[in-house]
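Minutes, project check-in
Item: structure for the 95-residue chain
Input as provided by the requester:
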Amino acid sequence: MIGEFERRAPVAGRNAICLGVGLYADYGPAQRLYVKLGYQPDANGTTYANRPMPPGRTVLLDDSLVLWLIKLHWGRPAVVASQPTMSSVTSYPEY
């Protein structure tokens, strides 16, 4: 599936692909695969339910805690939002 996204990205005018991966052991194989495929942390840290997590915040380690990865293509700088999935989120629950 990722290979197909990577093939379609340039056709869609995209020069980067961003994805999120969970942080607990069940996601270990996916974490290793993404690194092997050239994905790197996007330098924006983690999110919980699409909300950035500041230092010192306590959250549940579940599927909602995500590290965002990015893979740049074709030698051009990325044109992506700092947190691509957050644009659709209009309100956040209080933790």
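Outcome recorded: The longest strand covers residues 40-48.
No further action items on this chain.
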